[in-house]
Amino acid sequence: QEHAVLAHARDHRAAAMQLFLRGLAGETSAVEATAEATVGEAFGSKAVVFGGLCLDAAAKVGDIHGLGEGSTVCEVVRLPGGGDGTEAMGKKNKHTHGLCIRCGKRSYHIQKKKCASCGYPAAKKRSYEWS
Asked: Please, where are the H alpha helices in 1-131?
């Protein structure tokens, strides 16, 4: 009887499940895949995302948490990698300059304690003929 339970579980895992693939243009197509099939075998060479995570082509469909009968997997554009890393660093969120109390511009350097526009706290207002 224990052997029959194991055989039933093995048959259940090997049974094909229907998944849906949403393409780049928004069209949806049905895909049959077994739990033992890899993501690459089920969806081809497309880059796919499920639950906000990019799926590895070598991962088994049955091992992906939450992926089951009737789940929708989205195809995404595979972007070329590389570069100098600035894209991954994101926008800089440091505030180096604040509002100057004399001229009102956001030119007062917080660490240097000096305005780049008017020269505050210097007594003489910063001005040049070329500016």
From this structure: 2-14, 39-43, 86-89
